[in-house]
Design a protein that fits this description.
This protein has 459 residues and is an alpha+beta fold. Helices cover 25% and strands 17% of the residues. The longest helix is centred in the N-terminal third of the chain and has 17 residues. It is globular and about 80 Å long.
Length: 459
């Protein structure tokens, strides 16, 4: 890591941030900070606006690209994925640079140099990612399933396609550990959907998409869309909840061992055959997993036959009114903790409000409450958190964490935690709090490395 620890590696980035700092001419020190990873970065720089009628070009940010790439190369050489930094620059140019991280127990922050989610229990997963779908032993295929019609339609649309052999289908089943439903077998017997079979014939590829109404994966691309296939950071995953109404056609889980993904809609959303349908669904129905959502799926067609014949799926029934298991208390939603409290509550998020700070007494003793996030200054007494014995994720402001730490009242059943920071706060005190929390679980701390250099006198 010698090159990462070389001040010269960071000097171009620091000079850019200093030049863009509004107080760089003041007779006092300037603090700059940021985050650089191997695949992205977050720096407080004002980008040049391109001339009217022209999109932004790489050349417009060339100096920034070059400075960041210099750091990224050293990260790649050292096998490090992400590093935050903060620097105090004196008017003389003397600079104290602090590199923060990495730690295997800390997820990268999102657009900020401050620490991301702290993983307190190695390998722990948020509750929705631990949930399996309910068995569906009484589910039956939709009446629209017609294997002969499906095969005939596909062969008419794809007369020159090369189909998969029974051995290839059996190999896919062995790899997945699941028996493919009959409709998928018919589909792949007509076309094995390999790009090499199409050669350079782009029109043939388009015809295949039109014939199946999706971008079809080949047999090697089939995968089980279980919860592990739907990655999500703890901070956001902890805010989700599994809800499946009694008449739902699709279960509201993150993923399922019975969701066999076989295609894409061309926009990043995956199509899957559903072998664990909801109470109102059909075995083998086609669902879509949105790339913009972390949980659940939408019904596309009652069967693969319906998908290919472009018959719409059954319309979802009107949702039954029920108390929300995820509640948000803020100026635009619920206005009190009492309004959010009920025995089924799992997630409570307290945001900006215009009244007095809240007491957590109304949610004390709720059996399913597992996530609490609170905007800084919204809690009347942070020590009330100690009474919430079922929490697995907690996000608070630095002052609230300070109260819990000083009182020895941090809930010990937590699996993950986060420090919510707003504005341009100095990352160093936040890292200190994060390391105190990590120490309670004997987790790897955020490494702090001090470097010194000289950028020359400020103009």
């Amino acid at each position: 890591m010698a090159s990462i620890l070389d001040f010269a590696t960071w000097e171009p980035v620091l000079r850019l941030l200093l030049a863009d700092h509004p107080q760089r001419h003041a007779a006092r020190s300037v603090r700059v900070s940021g985050r650089i990873g191997r695949h992205g970065w977050s720096l407080a720089l004002k980008r040049r606006i391109p001339p009217p009628g022209r999109a932004a070009q790489v050349e417009d940010m060339q100096e920034e690209y070059d400075a960041v790439e210099r750091v990224q190369r050293t990260l790649a050489d050292a096998g490090v994925g992400d590093v935050s930094f903060t620097a105090e620059i004196e008017p003389t140019g003397t600079t104290a640079l602090r590199l923060l991280g990495p730690s295997p127990a800390v997820e990268p922050g999102v657009g900020t140099p401050h620490p991301g989610t702290l993983i307190l229990v190695d390998g722990a997963l948020p509750e929705p990612w631990r949930r399996l779908p309910d068995p569906a032993p009484e589910a039956v295929p939709a009446p629209s399933v017609d294997l002969a019609l499906l095969e005939r339609t596909l062969r008419e649309r794809l007369p020159h396609a090369i189909g998969a052999t029974e051995e290839e289908i059996a190999a896919a089943e062995a790899r997945l550990g699941v028996t493919l439903p009959d409709e998928l077998k018919v589909l792949y017997r007509v076309t094995r959907a390999r790009w090499e079979d199409l050669g350079d014939d782009h029109e043939a590829a388009e015809r295949q998409c039109e014939a199946v109404d999706c971008e079809l994966f080949d047999l090697d691309g089939l995968y089980v869309a279980d919860a592990s296939s739907r990655r999500c950071s703890w901070k956001f995953a902890a805010m989700e909840a599994v809800v499946t109404p009694p008449d739902a056609m699709v279960q509201g889980v993150v993923g399922s061992p019975g969701w066999i993904a076989f295609g894409d809609n061309g926009g990043g959303d995956r199509l899957a055959v559903d072998l664990t349908p909801g109470p109102g669904g059909h075995m083998g129905q086609v669902i879509m997993l949105s790339h913009e959502e972390n949980i659940g799926a939408a019904l596309v067609a009652d069967s693969v036959t319906d998908l290919v014949l472009r018959r719409p799926g059954a319309a979802p029934s009107s949702p039954q009114l029920q108390e929300p298991v995820v509640a948000r208390v803020n100026i635009a939603s619920l206005r009190s903790i009492q309004a959010a409290a009920h025995p089924g509550l799992e997630v409570l998020s307290i945001g900006v409000c215009d009244g007095a700070p809240f007491s957590l007494a109304p949610v004390t003793g709720l059996p399913r409450l597992r996530t609490l996030t609170a905007y800084p200054g919204t809690l009347a007494d942070p020590l009330e958190i100690a009474e919430l014995t079922g929490l697995e994720f907690l996000e608070l402001g630095p002052q609230e964490w300070r109260v819990l730490l000083d009182a020895g009242a941090v809930p010990r059943r937590l699996s993950a935690a986060a420090i919510v920071v707003h504005g341009n706060q100095d990352p160093l005190p936040i890292v200190d709090i994060a390391n105190e929390i990590l120490a309670l679980w004997d987790r790897p701390r955020i490494i702090q490395t001090a470097l010194e250099g000289d950028l020359g006198p400020m103009a």
